[in-house]
Amino acid sequence: MISRDQLEQLFAQYGWPMDTKDWTNLNTVFTADSKFTVQIAGGDTYGPIEGRAAIYEFVSQTVGAQTDQRRHVITNVRVESESDEKTVATAILTLLVTENGSIELKSSGLYRGEVVQEDGQWRFSSLHLYLDVPF
């Protein structure tokens, strides 16, 4: 079973490219057949985007097009359920944006992910982001 430190590190490895646009590690956090969905309350749903390559493409293009500086603050990481095969975890997102010398709270939301081992590493087999407002 995944440790709390490993789970927090997995969420951090996911959030890092969102803030730095350093895409090097993005492929390490998703399984080959993973699914990713973004659902905005009262608005659009993106996905499910299926497969590591498609998720990489969606995230890198979407985030890469943003001209402001974003900071994904991922907190309150918790295990919802776990078995020998997978762990279901949730975490809270607070999205801060800096632009033109001002910082604003852009959005908040809830991550819900299924975590499994693939090739000896913990990875998301699915990750769903439920945003409170658009990003």
List the defining traits of the structure above.
Nuclear Transport Factor 2, Chain: A; 22% helix; six-stranded mixed beta sheet; globular; 135 residues; 6 strands; 2 helices; alpha+beta
List the helices and strands and how they pair.
Blueprint: H1 4-20, E1 30-40, E2 45-50, H2 52-64, E3 69-82, E4 87-99, E5 102-118, E6 121-131
Parallel strand pairs: 1-6
Antiparallel strand pairs: 1-2, 3-4, 4-5, 5-6
Description:
This protein has 135 residues and is an alpha+beta fold. The protein has one domain (4-131): Nuclear Transport Factor 2, Chain: A, CATH 3.10.450.50. The protein has helices at 4-20, 52-64; strands at 30-40, 45-50, 69-82, 87-99, 102-118, 121-131. The chain has a 6-stranded mixed sheet with strand order 2-1-6-5-4-3, covered by helices on one side. A hairpin with a 2-residue loop joins strand 4 (87-99) and strand 5 (102-118). The radius of gyration is 14 Å and the shape is globular. It starts with a helix and ends with a strand. The relative contact order is 0.23. The model has no long low-confidence stretch (mean pLDDT 93).
Helical residue percent band: 10-25%
> How far is it from the N-terminal to the C-terminal residue, by CA?
33 Å
Number of helices: 2
Looking across the biggest beta sheet, what order are the strands in?
Answer: 2-1-6-5-4-3
Write down the secondary-structure element order.
Answer: HEEHEEEE
> From the 3D coordinates, which CATH architecture would you assign?
Roll
In percent, how much strand structure appears in the residues? over 45%
Low-confidence stretches: none
Structural class: alpha+beta
Integer average pLDDT: 93
> Could you please say which CATH topology applies here?
Nuclear Transport Factor 2, Chain: A
CA-based shape: globular
Number of domains: 1
CATH class: Alpha Beta
**Biggest sheet character:** 6 strands, mixed
Count all strands and give the number.
Answer: 6
